[in-house]
Amino acid sequence: MSTQLGFYFNSDNCVSCRTCVIACKDKNDNPLGVNFRRVISYEGGTWLPHPTVKGVMLPSNIFVYSVSVACMHCVKPICVEVCPTGAMTKHDNGIVAVNQDKCIGCRLCQQSCPYGAPQFNEVKGVMSKCDLCQDLIANGEKPACVASCPQRALDYGELSELRNKYGEGNSIEPLPDPSLTWPAVVINPHRQAQPPGQGTGRIVAEV
Amino acid sequence: MNLREFALVTFSILAQMAVGSFLILGVVHFFVKRTADINQADQMSDRALLAIVPTLGLALLASLFHLGNPLIAYDSVLRVGSAWLSREVTFSALFFVVGTIFAYMQWKKISTPAVRNGLAVLGALLGLALVFSMSRIYMLRTVPAWNTIVTPLTFFTTTFLLGTLAVGAAYVANYRYIRRKDLDCAEVQCTLLHKTLRWLVITAIALLGIEFVVAPMYIAYLAALGGAASNTAGLMIGQFGLVFALRLLLVFLGAGILGVFIFQNASESQEQKLGYLTYSAFALVLVGEVLGRFLFYATYVRVGI
Q: What is the ipTM for the molecules in this complex?
């Protein structure tokens, strides 16, 4: 059986500090606008009039939580399916990575990925994306984002082991329907998280 | 719209126009050969055929501007077994090669008409495969507005509509050339031109009808789907509503109104008037279809984040 590496994210522990975003950007030396890991804040709720005091509004079902997203190293990666050159490949360990020497910069992977993982590097004219810090994990180190998280909200490893350890959850709003690409991710939902496709809130901050 | 997106609009419109012209030219040639004779059919079509190759060449050149790393563009055929973009590039290249060889052989009358016919049919099939692959690229399961039958339907409608009017304009230009040079086939060509233009206009009006039926149904369907699809519908009638209306108006004016004038004037011997009408119809529809393709890319909404 081939292996499938993936990330774990605990939305309940995330405080939206975005240290993972910066650690990732630093490790990969990414230019402005390119962020392999992003933290998306999602909020919702409403205000209701106070039952007795006129002119006073009370909060109702107010919530906010964040989702830290990088490449999901999907089991059915649409980016790999559409790539015309084979620059985008899924490795034996499940990692989806782009070979920049083979990329022609047609950006079809960017147009098709529902997680916004492949991103165009304007300087090089080719695509770039999260490769789960293959170089670091080959040396027994953790991916930069996982190592940096002060809340211990991120982890990585073999998908089956992550599932044994953390459960089966793999999507919460505002992430897309997981049946599209089968993301190799385990997500512990925030206590106020909403199921994908049924959210009542909106994205208030991206990156 | 930046250069990269404009490159895609240019490539797809010119490539579809080339394929459409090739097919329409072939069909007309076939029928003219039956009713008149092969020399008259060649006299009518050969000059127009020569214009298709540079049109497709221009399209392929434009497609390079879409790429971030065009120096290794040839690598885009590597996944022809599984990726539709690879198939599109492969069929573009094959159509270009077969089209060029056929146009040259037809111009120089190399080999027998049967062999040339075989090549023409092969070219036509490659062209159809090209337009089909082009539409399949966009049928992504993560882009619900593109992932419908409407994508191939509109791509083929554009192909035939532009093909019909481009060929019509080419026939008029060709006839006026024959008149100017005072070639002895002018009288027969005049009759053929008038008869052909009428059929082309009828075809164009039918295709126009398809566009007008599909457009509102498509928007209603997208709006009913909800999510990312209804965002596309919202962009089409909201932010890009003016472009959407202008697009339909231009195609209606070109293929519809001018089409009727062309039909009425086809039997009169006023070549100049007929010329202006046909060129204007082609120009209006071309601009309308360019706007339509721009709209296709501009209203892209993907699911997810």
A: 0.91
